[in-house]
Structure formats: structure tokens, C-alpha cells
Amino acid sequence: MRKIHVITQKEAVREERLSGCTAAVIDVFLATSTIIFLLERNYEPVHAVLGSKQALELSQLQQSEHLLLGESKGEGLDGFAYPDPAGLQHSQKRQAAIICSTNGTIAIEKAKSSKKLYISSLVNGHCVAERIHQEQGGSSIVLICSGNDDRFSMEDFIGAGQLVMHLTKSGDYELSDAAKLAQKAYESSLAQGFKELLDSETAHLLQRFNFPAAAQFVINQHEQLDIVPVYENGMIVKEPGQVKTMTD
């Protein structure tokens, strides 16, 4: 029986333990939601990097038009678009995107040694769970909450619970203590329309930096995107093929 672990913040990740595992990184407000919307709006591949220095270095190597996004501790960066999914426009032609952030892209970097790495949020967690369930083999599943700059993040824990709930509805899994609590947190939050997420630290941070619509936008898009982003060869791309969701 496959086991589901939930790591409550990226600082607790032990990279050497991920090599045989399936992992999913969750940063509901903002990075993983932004990455999912980038893929939906014709930006592919998406390069998730540690910080602005790495983003600018990679940008200089690009030979074609691309989108550069980033923030640091919630503040925008000069020369970067803010990684706000509510403000993303659809690209008329396919182009790459480069994104750096305080939490989510660092979590992705820490998880890149996993056997398979998915990018998840409330907007697509139902599809990510189904794809993980379809995998062959008995690898452990590690759900990584990015957290909030060295601290626990309510919305990421609830995003992990979304995956746990869909997985357990589809089959038998062994849950860690954190996975059990995450599932209960998600079910409770879902029943209340995720209202408490608007009172999270990150939602208040986004309001303070003049992005008041970002959190509500993500909540409004709960399970609306049938996109499964995967980390392959240092880039994030859409998993090929259609996913039959558990709600179909």
C-alpha cells in the first residue's frame, strides 16, 4: 500500500529521501497557482528558479521572447512582472516563462530529485491526484507545502489535504499523521467555501502589496483547471494526454 506523507514547509524537506518518491509541491498563494495558469495561458515551458539572480541569468540566455516574473517576500522586483495569476494575460503565441519566488520555486528546487514531481494547487489538485493514482508501482507520495518564508502556511496545508482526499476516495493509501490532519483541514475548509484562507498570512501580505484579488481569484478557480504540470529536464511542462478526473 502506498503511503502519503505531508511535509508542512519546504525547510523540512530532506532532499536525499525523495529519490524514489512521487512528490507534489503546493504553493496556493502564489507560485504554483501562477505556474498552472501560465501553462493554461500558453506559456510553456516554465522555468522555476531560486531567485532574481538566477532568473536574470537564465533570461539572458533565452533566444526568443519570454515572460519574466518574480517577487521577494511579497514585494515586486524591478524588471519582473508580479506572479499574480489574476493578472496573467493569454499569450497569442507559445512562449517560455521564468519565475522566481520566496517560497514555491524554492520548494520546487528542493524537490527536484524526486522520481516524479508535480505542481499542484487548489485549482488543479483533483487532476494531479488522479494522475498520481494512475501511476504504476508502489512509490511513496510526498506532498510538500511550500510554507510562508520559514513558517507554516494554512493554504498550502489545505492544498495538500485536497490531494489526500481525492487519493483516498480513489483507492487505499496509508496516511501519515500530517496527511490525516491535512485531509480534515481541506474538508472543513471546503465546506466553508475556503473563507478562512482570506484571513491567512499570505492573503494579508498580498493585500498589503496591492494584490487584493489574488487570493480570491485562486479560490474562485477551485478545481477548474484540468492541467497536470510536471517537472522534466529542469523545466515545468504540461503532462501529455488527458486526465479523466474523479468528478467525471
Automatic annotation (TrEMBL):
Entry EC number(s): 3.1.3.71
Needed cofactors: Mg(2+)
Keywords for the protein's UniProt record, in alphabetical order: Hydrolase, Magnesium
Keyword Hydrolase: yes
Domain of life: Bacteria
One of the Pfam families matching this protein, by short name: 2-ph_phosp
The UniProt record lists the keyword Magnesium: yes
Top EC class of this enzyme: hydrolase
Catalytic activity: (2R)-O-phospho-3-sulfolactate + H2O = (2R)-3-sulfolactate + phosphate
Family: Belongs to the ComB family.
Name assigned to this protein: Probable 2-phosphosulfolactate phosphatase
